[in-house]
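step: validate -> pass
step: tokenize input -> pass
step: predict -> running
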Amino acid sequence: MEEQRLITLEDIYKQYDGTTVLDHINLYIRKKEFVTLLGPSGCGKTTTLRIIGGFETADSGRVIFDGQDISGIPPYKRRVNTVFQKYALFPHLNVRDNIAFGLKLKKMSKAEIDRKVDYMLDLVNLKGYGKRGVDSLSGGQQQRIAIARALVNEPEVLLLDEPLGALDLKLRKEMQLELKAMQQRLGITFLYVTHDQEEALTMSDTIVVMQGGRILQIGTPKSIYDEPKNAFVANFIGESNIFPGTMIRDELVHFCGADFPCVDSGFGEDHPVDVVIRPEDILLVGEDVGQVTGTIKSVLFKGVHYEMIIDAGHSIWKVHSTTMQPEGSRVGLAVVPFNIHIMHRMEEEKPQEEAKK
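step: predict -> pass
step: emit ->
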């Protein structure tokens, strides 16, 4: 709803050395929302974050914060704090003084500073670490201190620019859950930048998929995974089988040499489309009952499932299943209508969304 909007980007355009990095993007972010800007390197997500934080200025467009145009306001006057991938902690200060740095600049009383710092150390699970030097801490602990230093100033928005990028896989997954729990506990808005689709799916209320300085799709993790708008989004969010096809009519599509019932409509008749099917949504059945038949070319065990590559003649299918068929087996492939998603061909799309609906 309109009254929940905290940040609105209006027609933001930015160039670097004649190259467009943000192409008239429009976006709004609600209060207490965890929003992730997701996309490959160079898509414009970090520039978007820096413009909101005041570290970059858009060539045109406006940044509206809680109803006020803040486009010309310097970073230290904005009600946001930023956590970068390089934590930028002060090596000459201990953990406690790093967290307290911003509070001391505000000339708070020692008692109030101590209370707030103690709360933050508890929040980031580092109680008792206050007197340690930051260089003695692990990467994950340093990252927690950087977050605590930003949060202790009670910003209305926390901007996070790939803060988990330097951590190993196990710690990164743990911190994903911790960050989400912190955001829910504090009830503040998080704007998070990553190129890691698993991070985006794990933590976000809303994902903004970006490419080439444009917004391709905005939605919940589930809606973007289940209903990708085009082939780029389908490939970037999870693994997909994407086939060229023809929409024969509403709820019937032809691809890979067969007609498949589906649940999509509104594409017209005999219209070229892209068809996306997630690997886990394909059923291995007998040759005599499959909509398509093929030969298993490879089998890879991936811990929770097997990944099988199946050659169906004019098409190659990737299937994820908890049961395995050996290489060389002839199998049938079946897909229920609900698991077939129809998309416009990407060249037909205008990727920029005006705003979240």
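step: describe -> The chain has a mean pLDDT of 90.
step: cleanup -> pass
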